[in-house]
């Protein structure tokens, strides 16, 4: 038989090569079916479809074949490459219906990069190509080409070179079988096969039919109580694995459309007739598909294809049974097409009901395709999607970067990453400190198996700074990238943005990391490392002097178990200088690297940089420590009793030195006679001796161990859990000044004894209080440094002080006048002249009228007048820091340009908390 159409089975005059018993093509195989070149016994050519160009060896499923393309020919090339390189061909005969053919050269024995292309049935016809893939010339040898949904037949696989190269290649073909849920086999033996019939098949491409648990559509229950049970009887069940019987489309059935299968061909005649869109479909059959979108995306939905053979309308709804939720409708008639096209540019996650409805008939074929382009997740799109003023990782509704929804948790629920607890027990609490927290909305503090980039101890972006909080690209320890933003964050820009005399992280108390975008802190809101107190009782106060303070914004002074390099008593860098504050390589006591920078800092370079005849630290009063960057003395000079230096070389530092009466003392010189708080005696008979054990001692040089008030002060006791009524005298004496205000106002003093540790609440916010008081709670009546809390000032207007974990003992309570400070205007009109120029220029000087007021900042050129009572002080507005006195009122004024178009004046009273009224007058 020369073919099916041959009408004569009689032997031919010339015996075909594929039946003559000869190896005509000298490939070691004889006749049909042994010779792959023979399609039948009547074939007259053993060479087959590849002719004289190739003699393709036969590949077997999963069996590697060694080829050496260096001995190939230069006859073919693929659509993606191979030109000018030697190639060989191999044959694979597919006999089964499968999901895909996987063709791979990935093998240790493969020596060269390749171009792979596949032709079906016709070996020498380029138009028969069904797939092509090439490698880059510098890529690692080996790659894999996948042919999807191949039909049975002969496949000629060409192994070609890249840029003329040839060599050894190991070629393997693997058949990928059909998924268990579409292979027509009852794989789990439950009597039901494949999707949609098997309850273990959630989609046709599911590779396991096993049923873990019965769903609403297979549990033999009428879950929606409509009288119809499970798939296929209940119209709410598109498959046996669907987990809701709710009739989303009323009594009309719908199908599932899966994103893994972007297109489907279907028939209107198999649909229903119950819906219509605004653009058509009334009284004609429709087919309804439910598409579950898992993320924010751009969706393009179309039936405009040649396979759509009947006119159809296309419409999309969020709720199948509600016409008001229609998102678009297109019948294609305007463009002369059979089908429509709808684009949803900002589709949110959730179900979409896509309806293909007949325009003119109830039958006919159509093709529906859904193309999805994922958009940034709702928590990674740089938008405030829930309008709460917070975006992405800062939003408490965002559990991670892939979270599609910024909506916060219901009221009363707090995410694990902002609940104030160490949920995973690693010693780190919440965002931004726990590496398990991407943002404050994280639901789990558990650390990932692989440390995030901002907590892995590696300088991932090569900028010389490693991890959170030191790298400007790290907003938290759980952040996945160290890459710095295009614009330096406020806490890493080299500017004192809040004009508090401290610049950036780790020096500014408003900066919790170099990535922080706000330096402002406010003196009433500073933590333990910037509050002016020795919170851990080690005699060292705040950043940069306390070894427990790694940065100024830290709220815990407790020293680490292993002291950092700049506080460990060792010369770690071998330069002969040990630790902070004398080591030029130590920027702060908590610094863990003593290496000296190049060049040396101003206060450690051996030069008199400010020409005051004082050189470096500790000789120059402008140098707070050897690593400081300025010797200038214009601003506030830290007192010697809290500068972290052993100024008198007696081995004792600051308030641990018997020469220091308080932390504000500027002289560490020891007195001839040991003071009460440094004489090793219990002078007040309370069972505790000296500083820091005795609560009456604020420093070792304090001359009183007693916590009592001085003689002549009227102190009213408050009974346990009691209430007292009192008053301050009109025009009475201002007996005490506290850090919280009330200067110049009369005060009243009370004493309370706490018998056991607990929470102590002191409040003047009660009926009967008829003026705005300031309430201060101290452990020592005569030492304002012992304040444990205060309220009634501008930072905390309600006069209630709450002290958590208050220790037993005496507490002194001052009720002072003054109330919350406030700004008040003189009430005079201010006239502004429109500037001629609109570019800000730093022309603020003592007298800058010479340009006639033409600049954008013109012109605050007169001196600033600061008045307290009858006393007045004149201060230049020019940029810089200046100290002055208006009578007995001391102050510091800092003038600076914080940006090209922002001029800021920062006024600070010399006495902390001094809230006496002061007037300012600026003219220009």
Q: Indicate how many domains the architecture comprises.
A: 7
* Fraction of residues in β-strands: 15-25%
**Cα-atom radius of gyration:** 42 Å
Q: Number of DSSP helices? A: 2
Q: How many strand elements?
A: 30
Q: Please state the second-level CATH architecture of the largest domain.
A: Sandwich
Average pLDDT score: 88
Distance between the termini: 112 Å
Uncertain stretches of 5 or more adjacent residues: 849-853
Biggest β-sheet strands, sense, barrel: 5 strands, mixed
Molecular shape: elongated
Strand order of the largest sheet: 9-11-16-13-14
Helical content class: under 10%
Secondary-structure class: mainly beta
CATH third-level topology of the largest domain: Jelly Rolls
CATH class descriptor name of the largest domain: Mainly Beta
């Amino acid at each position: 038989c020369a073919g099916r159409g041959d009408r004569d089975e009689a032997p031919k005059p010339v015996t075909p090569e594929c039946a003559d018993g000869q190896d005509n093509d000298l490939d070691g195989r004889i006749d049909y079916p042994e010779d792959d070149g023979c399609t039948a016994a009547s074939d007259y050519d053993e060479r087959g479809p590849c002719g004289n160009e190739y003699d393709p060896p036969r590949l077997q499923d999963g069996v590697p074949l060694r080829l050496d393309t260096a001995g190939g020919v230069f006859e073919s090339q693929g659509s993606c490459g191979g030109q000018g390189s030697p190639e060989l061909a191999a044959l694979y005969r597919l006999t089964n219906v499968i999901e895909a053919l996987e063709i791979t050269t990935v093998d240790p024995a493969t020596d060269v990069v390749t171009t792979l292309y596949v032709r079906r049935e016709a070996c020498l016809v380029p138009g028969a190509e069904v797939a092509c893939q090439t490698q880059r010339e510098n890529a690692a040898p080996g790659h894999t080409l996948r042919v999807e949904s191949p039909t049975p037949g002969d496949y000629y696989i060409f192994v070609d070179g890249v840029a003329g190269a040839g060599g050894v290649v190991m070629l393997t073909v693997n058949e990928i079988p059909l998924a268990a849920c579409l292979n027509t086999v009852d794989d789990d033996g439950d009597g039901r096969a494949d999707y949609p019939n098997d309850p273990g098949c959630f989609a046709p491409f599911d590779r396991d039919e096993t049923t873990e648990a019965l769903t609403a559509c297979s549990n033999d229950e009428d879950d929606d109580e409509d009288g119809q049970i499970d798939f296929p009887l209940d119209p709410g069940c598109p498959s046996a694995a669907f987990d809701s019987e709710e009739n989303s489309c009323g009594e009309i059935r719908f199908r599932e459309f899966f994103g893994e299968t972007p297109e489907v061909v279907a028939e209107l005649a198999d649909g229903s007739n119950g819906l219509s869109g605004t653009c058509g479909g009334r009284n004609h059959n429709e087919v309804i598909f439910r598409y579950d979108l898992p993320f924010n995306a751009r969706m393009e939905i179309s039936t405009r294809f040649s396979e759509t053979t009947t006119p159809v309308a296309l419409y999309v709804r969020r709720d199948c049974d509600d016409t008001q939720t229609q998102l678009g409708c297109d019948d294609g008639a305007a463009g002369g097409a059979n089908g429509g096209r709808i684009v949803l540019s900002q589709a949110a996650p959730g179900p979409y009901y896509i309806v293909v409805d007949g325009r003119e008939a109830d039958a006919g074929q159509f093709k529906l395709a859904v193309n999805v382009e994922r958009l940034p997740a709702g928590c990674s799109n740089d938008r405030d999607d829930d309008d709460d003023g917070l975006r992405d990782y800062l939003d408490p509704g965002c559990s991670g970067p892939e979270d599609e929804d910024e909506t916060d948790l219901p009221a009363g629920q707090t995410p694990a990453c902002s609940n104030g607890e160490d949920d995973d027990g690693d010693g780190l609490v919440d965002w931004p400190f726990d590496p398990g927290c991407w943002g404050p909305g994280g639901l789990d503090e558990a650390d990932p198996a692989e440390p995030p980039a901002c907590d892995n101890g590696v300088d991932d972006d090569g900028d010389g700074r490693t991890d959170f909080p030191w790298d400007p690209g790290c907003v938290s320890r759980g952040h996945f990238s160290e890459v710095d933003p295009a614009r330096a964050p406020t806490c890493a820009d080299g500017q004192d943005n809040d004009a508090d005399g401290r610049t950036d992280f780790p020096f500014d108390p408003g900066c919790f990391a170099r990535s922080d975008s706000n330096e402002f802190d406010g003196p009433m809101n500073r933590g333990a490392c910037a509050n002016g107190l020795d919170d851990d009782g080690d005699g060292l106060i705040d950043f940069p002097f306390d070894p427990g303070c790694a940065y100024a914004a830290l709220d815990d002074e407790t020293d680490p178990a292993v002291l950092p390099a700049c506080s460990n008593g060792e010369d770690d860098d071998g330069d002969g200088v040990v630790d902070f504050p004398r080591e030029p390589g130590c920027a702060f006591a908590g610094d863990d690297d003593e290496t000296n920078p190049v060049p040396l800092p101003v206060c450690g370079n051996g030069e008199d940089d400010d020409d005051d005849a004082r050189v470096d630290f500790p000789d120059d009063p402008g140098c707070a420590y050897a690593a400081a960057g300025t010797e200038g003395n214009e601003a506030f000079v830290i007192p010697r009793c809290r500068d972290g230096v052993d100024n008198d070389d007696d081995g004792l530092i600051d308030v641990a030195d018997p020469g220091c009466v308080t932390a504000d003392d500027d002289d560490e010189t020891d007195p001839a006679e040991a003071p009460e708080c440094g004489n090793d005696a219990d002078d007040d008979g309370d069972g505790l001796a000296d500083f820091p054990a005795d609560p009456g001692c604020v420093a070792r040089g304090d001359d009183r161990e007693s916590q009592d008030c001085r003689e002549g002060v009227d102190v009213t006791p408050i009974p346990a859990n009691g209430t007292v009524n009192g008053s301050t005298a009109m025009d009475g004496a201002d007996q005490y000044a506290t850090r919280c205000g009330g200067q110049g106002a009369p005060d009243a003093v009370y004493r309370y004894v706490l018998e056991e540790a607990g929470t102590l609440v002191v409040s003047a916010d009660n009926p009967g209080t008829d003026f705005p008081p300031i309430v201060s709670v101290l452990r020592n009546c005569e030492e304002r440094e012992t304040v444990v809390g205060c309220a009634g000032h501008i930072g905390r207007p309600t006069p209630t002080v709450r002290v958590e974990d208050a220790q037993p003992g005496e507490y002194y309570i001052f009720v002072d006048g003054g109330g919350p400070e406030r700004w008040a205007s003189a009430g005079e009109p201010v006239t502004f002249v429109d500037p001629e120029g609109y570019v800000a220029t730093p022309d603020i000087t003592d007298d800058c009228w010479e340009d006639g007021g033409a600049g954008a900042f013109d012109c605050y050129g007169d001196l600033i007048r600061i008045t307290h009572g009858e006393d007045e002080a004149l201060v230049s507005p020019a940029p810089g820091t200046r100290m002055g006195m208006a009578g007995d009122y001391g102050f510091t004024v800092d003038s600076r340009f914080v940006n090209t178009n922002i001029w800021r004046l920062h006024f600070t009273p010399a006495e902390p908390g001094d809230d006496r009224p002061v007037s300012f007058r600026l003219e220009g």
